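Predict fold of Carbohydrate kinase PfkB domain-containing protein; 352 aa.
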Amino acid sequence: MQSPRMSEKDEVTPLFVSLGMLVLDELHLPDSTTQHNVIGGSGAYSTLGARLAVEDSQSRRIASFVLAGHDFPYDKVEKHFRPWGIDYTIKRLPTTMSTRGRLEYHDWKFEHKSYSYLTTPLQPRPIDLPLRFLQSSTFHLLSSPDVLSTQLSELSQRRLEHGITVQPLLVWEPAPLSCTANFLDAYIDAARLVDVFSPNHVELLGLCERSLKKHESFDKGLIEACATRFFATEHSNPRICIVRCGEHGAVVLERNQSPDFRVKTTWVAPFFSPAEAGRVVDATGGGNTFLGAFAVEYQQNRGDAVLAARKASVAASFALEQIGPPDFGEGTWNGVTVEGRMGEYLKRVENS
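Predicted 3D structure, encoded as tokens:
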């Protein structure tokens, strides 16, 4: 029997694919209650950010690949993914447990928390991806330097096997546990393999053997000084380093290729001002959401990193207002359009 012809909608090349994980989190709240199967993980939240950065008519250009164990709650996950309209594939591993984590909150501000994996993490690899996902113009990765090198080698090989020679945009955030000073040189070397390197400020300071003490104020100069160490030579990647700094916003450092080597530094404000801190329910996943949105918007606006970071700040705000992903329906997220919130943000930035 001849298979049905794919529609034009199904043939679009993906703008974004993450090699991060979808994690089923077990949340332990300060009142001793527990929530199970809460969707988390860098793969899930970066995909959310990418989806927030496109119009509904382009939703199929955001792709997601999930490795699922025999205990995977398909109904709960698809309850979120299906309305988003993205192109997603869930690959079932019948003899394996799904990736599960334990997130313990120590106060009702959700600022002090601890995290651990309850099962062996199922990290997607390029070898797992369907062919249409391999054609993506952007890949998001969260890994240590050695794993990154393996991932990129496999990705390049698989793309070449299928005649895909255009270089994708590569966006990399570090694996938090490996952000210690003894890995700094490895991170500097590996950052040359990607276009965008993005630690958060805690990870960056850990790599540079620094940390902010409770009595110390946030130091933008220190963050900038540490970040410039990743522009090791004049003619190598990364082109962009973005340090995500939570309530302090984010700093975008861009390498100027000509006429001479310079690094341009721009700070981007967060969507929620300090006066609106009460609107932040849970910061988990905010940084991943930021990067997914940045990767897509950077392509859509033809390389304006600062504008992309501003849209990413807006996208991240939708991840902060609740535990788990935001509600989506009739073109709104948590009852608000991305365009409306972006307009509000830009007006605020222009007036500040």
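The domain at 11-351 is CATH 3.40.1190.20 (UDP-N-acetylmuramoyl-L-alanine:D-glutamate ligase).
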